[in-house]
Design brief:
4-stranded antiparallel β-sheet; Ubiquitin-like (UB roll); about 675 residues; about 25% strand; single chain
Length: about 675
Amino acid sequence: MRNAGASIDPPTDPFAAVPLPSRPVRPGARDPSVLPGEQPKGGSRLPPGVSPDIFGPSGAGQPAAPSGFGRPAGSLQGAPGLPPVAPPPQPWQMAAPPERSLRQHDETASGGPQQPESPHFTEPPRRRGRRSLLAVVVLLLLAGLAYAVPAIIMSGKMLPGTRVHGVDIGGLTATEAADKLRDRLQGKVGEEMTLLAAGRKYSLDPENAGLEFDIVATIGQASSGFPGPMDVWRALTGTTELAPQVSVDPEHMDSAVTALAKKIDLKVREGEVTFKGTKPVVVTPRDGHELEREAAAGAIRKAFLGAGGEVELPVSVIKPKATEGAVEKAAADAGKALSGPVTLTSSGRQAQLPVDTLAAHLSFKAESAGSMVPVFDAKNAVAAVENKLVDPAQAPQEPTFRIVGTTPELVPGRSGKGINDEKLADAVTRMVTKGGSRTIPVVLTNVNPRVSDAEARKLGIEEKISEFTTPYACCVSRVTNIRTIAKLLDGYLVKPGETFSLNGVIGQRDAARGFVPAPMIEGGRLVDSVGGGISQFVTTMYNAVFFGGLEDVQHVAHEFYISRYPAGRESTVSWPGPDFRWKNDSKYGVLVKTSSTATSVTVAFWSTKRYDIESLSSQRYDFTPFRNATGTGPSCLPMVGQQGFTIDVTRVFKQEGKEVKRETKKTVYKPETNLTCTSTSGPAQNE
């Protein structure tokens, strides 16, 4: 063979003949034996193209190169011709932070000491940071998925756990939720509400109060669109209760609360001292209460579709001004004051105020301090006796009108002397509270007419606006009273806006002015009384008011029907009550003109005409039978029995032939007892 017999020794080291430096030289370091600018002797000691880096670093702390590869002489490591021993494994060097790298570089360059490498493996800080960041990213992705997945499922629907008044609407669309609420709560919406006020219960229909369940607004409270993280959390972990929203019609609610107030409100009763004849009667004070309407409306609205049960409505308690003790004291004072008549004197003249006149004009007013103070109406009290204290030639004269043909002509009035009403009232009230003399001197003062001549001319007294006549049988005592009161009121002027009171103008009927005893109805029986029978004059005036289109303020029909009067259009009067009052609600004055004959009385009103009046009467209905009775004694007055009934009368107001308004009033007549008197004879009499 070609190479047979060739030596089996290892091939000769090609670098064995290359002389090595006497000391290790770092790669790239200048040989200290070579001056700067000179080439090393013998040139490079490595073959061309061979880098000294293949021998590894030769600096301090590095292992010596293998023999033949630049190791120091005398090194016995390895056998000649064998590859050098591999250096021990070193950990992978991580790049140090900039400052540290620079410091190590400086120490290495300066030959300073370096710390030995740890023999244990240490993970580089950069790798640890990357792993932590990766973990955070993974957690965030998982959290995002945990929110996004249920959020996508819940989007566009009511969140799970959403309830309205116990009805679960979770997972439904708005339309589905509305249908479900409408179906489930329909019965609840229509339930009557139970209200509690001042210890009493009342019922209220929510529909009548204008209350409605606002489903749209209720559902609108729920989260809409894509739910947020907190919405998803609440949906997954709990429930959301939506309060039912309520809409209210203000007009219906106001009407319902007003109707409740009429049932609940109790007017406070102030303490009073009234008189039964001449005997004082105590009216004890009583608390009142009043519904707080605005707060009540709020409570009703809040309770609608609420928890149920009774709804407490707020009510204010109203206390009377005077205490019960103050009222009793006032009654005791009144009893002393009415122990006898009061005598009035003036310049040698005198007149008496009888006990019944004192009682009729004496009253007591409750003060806020809790006391009762007496009030005396001196003006009306002395109306019947003033002519006894003042010379008629010096008395004031009211202006009036006389009718010449069909034309009213002014009769001028004049001022004159009259009793000072205020000073007389003060004197009487002092006597009531403190006692003292029952003789009171009156003070005269200049008194002007109620209406001046200039005012009278502007009252618009131009034409007759109404007239009414009623008949009576001649020559009985009651006719005297009718003609007497007609004469007293003839020519009386009622100013625009003024309320006429018959008892206020005429006062108590007495013999001094020509009134005589005559039958009148009292307690369902006929009794004799001074001034009895004037109810016929009142009925006549009432019809003049009716057809004059004036306002009826107070009229009281007789207890039973009297055939000479138009049914449902008649009125009675008594002293001190009931009274007959009407108001001149026009912008013109009203002149009262009266006339009478032996068989009839007429009342006419003159003013400026506003309305044509038509009277419509219903058929009589609700008849009630009369009873029979027998009376004895000289005071018994027989009566003819007749049944009771009810009738409605409508007043129709017209202008230029067109109806502008109408008003209807109901009158209920009791049956008249068929009374037979055993101690008297003669025909039965009616009032």
